[in-house]
Write a structure and sequence with these properties.
By secondary structure, this protein is α+β, with helices and mostly antiparallel strands. It has a domain at 22-87 and 100-183: 2-Layer Sandwich (Nucleotidyltransferase, domain 5). Helix content is 41%, strand content 21%. The strands form 3 sheets. The chain has a 5-stranded mixed sheet with strand order 5-4-3-6-7, with helices on both faces. β9 and β10 (217-218) form a beta hairpin. α2 (69-88) runs antiparallel to α3, α2 (69-88) crosses α4 (148-173) and α3 (100-127) crosses α4 (148-173). The longest helix is centred in the middle third of the chain and has 28 residues, at 100-127. The termini are far apart. It comes from Acididesulfobacillus acetoxydans. Residues 162-227 form the Cas12f1-like TNB domain. One of its GO terms (molecular function) is DNA binding.
Length: 237
């Protein structure tokens, strides 16, 4: 597979290597251990993700942010080219795909992003001894209003989110790590410190809690803490 990056083209060749079977423990067995740790991943729009390592009491042991700005900008530039071509093109010959090279480039790029990000998630979890990776169970994501290229870009971001979860699942499996998903209910709204309701600042990814006074907290970080909280409510309550 050819992948285009700013430095040039790269050839990615998938190789299947034999691995020993990995025995996975059930959720009940994992959470019952005193050294239980989980990697809670909040997939974002501007950031690819914010993830935290949490113990069974919700204490944060490590945090990592993976920015998506450069990837989103590059994808949007490809989509702007597609939109310009659409406006210029009147007739597409029968049997031909419109802007086939560009769409293939975008598809390969999205797949590369999903592989890079999922690999980083598994490596982070493994580094900190987390045997469980937790995502939100997200459905019905809709792009916000904007230009055609903006809406297309957000649709692809949502598609990449699904691919990241899928690729993380099988990469984690090879390391003896299990992927779980939890309800997204109030993950980014409920204050992890007092249980109050967070208020988002307009135009920035920051939030504050009027109840306990915590302010200028990254909203995606709050989302990661909320994912951990929902996991504990389900399995440790």
């Amino acid at each position: 597979m050819l992948i285009h990056k700013q430095s040039g083209w790269q050839l990615h060749v998938p190789v299947v290597l034999p691995r020993k079977a990995v025995k996975l423990e059930s959720v009940q067995v994992r959470v019952g251990k005193t050294d239980f740790r989980m990697c809670c991943v909040d997939l974002g729009i501007n950031h690819h993700l914010v993830m935290t390592i949490q113990d069974r009491k919700g204490r944060v042991l490590a945090t990592k942010v993976i920015s998506g700005g450069e990837d989103n900008h590059l994808r949007k530039s490809y989509l702007e080219k597609v939109v310009r071509l659409q406006k210029q093109t009147r007739v597409i010959p029968e049997g031909e795909r419109f802007a086939a090279d560009l769409w293939d480039k975008i598809g390969n790029f999205n797949d590369d992003v999903a592989h890079r990000v999922s690999r980083a998630i598994v490596e982070f979890a493994k580094k900190h001894g987390a045997k469980t990776i937790v995502f939100e169970h997200l459905t019905n994501l809709k792009p916000s209003k904007g230009t055609q290229s903006h809406r297309l870009n957000q649709k692809f971001i949502f598609w990449v989110k699904g691919r990241i979860v899928k690729y993380t699942r099988y990469k984690a499996l090879h390391e003896g790590i299990v992927v779980n998903r939890v309800s997204p209910r109030n993950t980014s709204k409920e204050c992890p410190y007092c249980g109050g309701t967070f208020t988002r600042y307009q135009g920035v990814a920051l939030a504050k809690c009027p109840t306990c006074g915590v302010k200028d907290v990254n909203a995606d970080y709050i989302g990661s803490l909320g994912i951990g909280r929902n996991f504990r409510k389900k399995w440790l309550a």
